[in-house]
Amino acid sequence: MLKNKTALITGSTSGIGLAYARALAEQGANVVINGLGDADEIEATRAAVENDFGVRCVYSAANMLKADEIATMVANAENEFDSLDILINNAGIQHVAPVEEFPIEKWDAIIAINLSSAFHAIRAAVPGMKKRGWGRIINTASAHALVASPYKSAYVAAKHGIAGLTKTVALEVAEHGVTVNAICPGYVWTPLVEAQIPATMEARNMTEEQVKQDVLLKAQPTKEFVTVEQVAALAVFLCSDAASPMTGTVLPMDGGWTAQ
């Protein structure tokens, strides 16, 4: 479906981002991955995408805190593959604290990585997409783009900002064959989530199952985690011709969380 297309996914060396990269590669797209991690592990991840799906995969170490590096990453992707057709903004970090105690440097970093990096990447990618008359921009938002939780002021503000950015850019490029949508997952089962469980078990004197059901999945009526593969499958659909009328949408994938 995506043969001869090129996709750039930020924050894609693990978790949801890597699932995006592999799902798009499976559909024939060449991919640019980006993110943090051990150099040898990143190279193994990159090589696996190429070997498993017979596409090209390159890695960019662009820092999501730096606008110039983000713009260069987009330009390099266009030069390497002659086009950048799909942009998925997925990079994100989190910090939890009451607003009056929230560290200023954490606020600045979360807004920069979770929101501003998406703006910088979109700003750099849109001219080429408009020129070619086709493009797909997908922003990983969150259930927190639609509702709030306490102690997450920066994250919730950034994700609400992503929702607004998605709608605004969608209107600007609507006549150019470019769609812009946001996926809003609830709790997704990733290595990062799994790693939080032992500390929560100890802190709250709970079993693993209690932590999953009564803490992590408390807000999700299905009481089931979203999987990275499910999120990636929605992204693949949004890249398809069948989804071409869908733009400016903010799509919950949250087990009923935001229906409450």
TrEMBL record:
Alphabetized UniProt keyword annotations: Oxidoreductase
Q: Which GO terms describe its biological process?
A: monocarboxylic acid metabolic process
Q: What is its EC number?
A: 1.1.1.30
Q: Which residues form a coiled coil?
A: none
Tell me the protein's name: 3-hydroxybutyrate dehydrogenase
InterPro entries for this protein: 3-OHbutyrate_DH (IPR011294), NAD(P)-bd_dom_sf (IPR036291), Sc_DH/Rdtase_CS (IPR020904), SDR (IPR050259), SDR_fam (IPR002347)
Which PANTHER family does the protein's record reference? 3-OXOACYL-(ACYL-CARRIER-PROTEIN) REDUCTASE (PTHR42879), 3-OXOACYL-[ACYL-CARRIER-PROTEIN] REDUCTASE FABG (PTHR42879:SF2)
Family statement drawn from the similarity comment of this UniProt entry: Belongs to the short-chain dehydrogenases/reductases (SDR) family.
In terms of PROSITE patterns, this protein maps to:
ADH_SHORT
Top class in the EC scheme: oxidoreductase
Superkingdom as given in the UniProt entry:
Bacteria
A Gene Ontology MF term for this entry? Answer: 3-hydroxybutyrate dehydrogenase activity
Q: Does the keyword Ubl conjugation apply?
A: no
